[in-house]
Structure formats: C-alpha cells, structure tokens
Amino acid sequence: MTQIKICGLMRPADVVMVNRAQPDAIGMVFAPGRRRQITVATARQLAQQLDSRIRRVGVFTTNQLSEILALVQQHIIQVVQLHAAVDAPRIASLMAAHVPVIQAMPLSNATQCQADYLLLDNARPGSGQVLDWNQLQSQRPVRPFILAGGLTPTNVVTAINKLHPAMVDVASGVETAGNKDREKIDLMVQRAHQTGVSAPLLTRNMEELA
Fold first, then answer.
1. Per-residue pLDDT tens for 99-155?
2. Measured in whole angstroms, how far is the alpha carbon of residue 19 from the centre of its chain?
3. Contact 115, 103 (CB under 8 A)
4. Angle formed by the axes of helices 12-21 and 182-193, to 10°?
5. Which one, of 71, 51, 41, 42, lies nearest residue 59 by Cα?
6. What's the longest Cα–Cα distance across the chain?
7. If both were cysteines, with which of 75, 81, 94, 102 could 117 make a disulfide (CB 3.0 to 4.6 Å apart)?
8. 178-183 CB contacts, 8 Å cutoff, 24+ apart
9. 174 within 8 A of 185, measured Cβ to Cβ
10. Number of neighbours of residue 68 by Cβ within 10 angstroms
C-alpha cells in the first residue's frame, strides 16, 4: 500500500469524512493568506474530533517558530510541513526538539532537503497543478518521498505505479466546489492503499508526540 495524506481540513464535516476513510495523515493549513488557512481554535477542535490513528500535520510558510512549536506542545499537530525557499534554521530547531519535519520542495532542489521527509510539489501548493511526471521519473530522488501536485482519484494509481512515492498528498483533488467531497476522499484513500509498496513515513517520535 501507499500511504496517503488528505490536506486542507477546515470543517468538522471534513473530520467525519477522513475518520470514515482512514487516510494515514491529514493536513491543517496555518500558512498566512492561503485559502484553507484555519485558526488555532478551529485546529484544536478538528484535532480533538480526529481518529487518533490518523497523524496530524501542520502546514506552514512564514510562520514564526514559536507559533509552530506551540501547536506541537498543545498536541494539536504532530508533524510539521514547511513550504519556504530557505528554511534551514527552523528545520534545525524543530528537529532538535524532536519534531518530525516534512520539507516541501520542487524537484530541482530535492537533493538539498534537510528535513526528515521530502515532499515534492509544484510552485503553487494546493493549486491542483500536476508535476512533470516524466521529469520526476528521470530524476527520481534516492530517498523515499511524498508526492503532491494535481493528484485525483482518476490519476493517483497511474502516479503511484509510475513514480513509486512512499506517500501521496492531496487537497483540491478530493474537493468539489472548494469543499471536501466524501466520495472522492473514500475513493482516493482506497486506491492509494491498494496500490504500491508501503514505506515507513511519518513515524519518527510519533509515540511520544501522540
């Protein structure tokens, strides 16, 4: 099976959908100015309602380190996902605090990943734009990676069979009219879990962060 993360949860109804579908992880967006950005209060509510077997990932861009650490310490999130061009200081500080870190990067910079986990995405995360799969196939990273960018229930099996990611990450691909769609989430999780080979991701220090 290939692991899957459903990103951009915003409503209690979204939690009901993922609790039913059982993805491996979900993402909550704290990045300023993003359409799916939620408040700490909303994130706390969603985290409390989420099945404890599903990992909670916080998505950040320019957020202060203190804000990120507070969300971890309050057990709202367990894993940090960073989208920033230069982020070595925050990554080092988070890893020193034993917080698992996903670094989102374009393929051209993949070898420079300094975090626990590498996420390959396009220049506009959450836009639904598909990565250049042919380029990724020819320049495949040597480490296990998370694949994002334009994935849908229609193309996810092809993407997994062609690119062999350890995890797939989807937001707009399981939405209808800007909201999470139960049928699309169910189908996306089912197809990811039935395809590919499982690799250990999002596991470092999970026991102590749960």
1. 999 999 888 888 888 899 999 987 665 556 777 888 888 888 888 899 999 999 999
2. 16
3. yes
4. 30
5. 71
6. 44
7. 102
8. 178/35, 179/11, 180/6, 180/8, 180/9, 180/10, 180/11, 180/13, 180/14, 180/17, 182/17, 182/20, 182/21
9. yes
10. 22
Strands (E), 108-162: 117-120, 145-147
**C-beta contacts of 167-170 below 8 A and 24+ residues apart:** 167/2, 167/3, 167/4, 167/5, 167/24, 167/25, 167/199, 167/201, 167/202, 168/2, 168/3, 168/4, 168/5, 168/192, 169/4, 169/5, 169/7, 169/27, 169/119, 169/121, 170/4, 170/5, 170/6, 170/7
CA distance 173 to 38: 19
Three-class secondary structure of residue 89 per DSSP: helix
Mean pLDDT score across all residues of the chain: 89
What are 124's two structure tokens? 């506009």
| Cβ 83 vs Cβ 63: under 8 Å | no
Sign of CA dihedral 77, 81, 85, 91: positive
Structure tokens at 175: 């939405």
**Is residue 36 a contact partner of residue 8, using CB atoms and an 8 Å limit?**
yes
